[in-house]
Amino acid sequence: MNEHGLSQRLAQVGAEVPEGARLADIGSDHAYLPVALMLAGKIDYAVAGEVVKGPFASACKQVAKNGLAEKVVVRLADGLDAVVAEDAIDTVTIAGMGGTLITSILEKGRQGQRLRGDERLILQPNVGERNVRRWLQDNHYQIVAEHILEENDKIYEIIVGMPQPPQQPLSYSEKELFFGPFLGVEKNPIFIKKWQREQKNRLRVLDQLQQAENPPREKIAAMRQQLAWIEEVLP
Ligand code: SAM
């Protein structure tokens, strides 16, 4: 992969970035996404935030190599601390991390007022998608789009949130948080493949839990509930 040819996963994240956006890409190893979007003329300005020095240096190199230092600003910072008010960011991408890390970055950003609450959020958790949806719901974001794709034998979900006026509270069901309000309705072949895999994994875990010396009742009940939901969505 390079700045011209994004992976299918990052290309799908980029496809959700609006034309003319002022983007903050948090966890921007190599700055591939902001550089590709800038080279394509899709965005006006970007901050590429990285907390680890090695990937930060790679991102700086990538930006310099493409002569974009004035338009793609690389900052070494934890999460949304990379962003300042003058950046006037309107779109945030956070991709390629666990859902718990993504929500902790968003929560810290909200508490530290780096996130205003009116940005478009494009999130690609590698695991823990349910946590991400729950955070969006709890913070008055409506899920406006979801994508699922397979690349190199891995299945990825992309979740897009847009701010919702607090006077219109959102309430997704537990099942919608689990499968995704769009993905669970669309049920495309990759979604089916993902949940067939998850069913196998959960059956194995359930078996292990049941064989424990002191079987954890609550965990077993939760696992059974999830397996019942999975059975319902599978053909
Ligand atoms: N976003 C790119 C992608 O999707 O291909 C890179 C994903 S890479 C697996 C995750 C990156 O996030 C790493 O470079 C890591 O250093 C960075 N990261 C992890 N926690 C972070 C944080 N709190 N703030 C900024 N960057 C973070």
TrEMBL record:
Source organism, top-level taxon: Bacteria
InterPro entries: SAM-dependent_MTases_sf, TrmK
Gene3D superfamilies: 1.10.287.1890, Vaccinia Virus protein VP39
Any Pfam family hit: TrmK
SUPFAM superfamilies given in the database record: S-adenosyl-L-methionine-dependent methyltransferases
PANTHER family in the cross-refs: TRNA (ADENINE(22)-N(1))-METHYLTRANSFERASE
Identification of the protein by name: tRNA (Adenine22-N1)-methyltransferase
Organism expressing this protein natively: Enterococcus diestrammenae
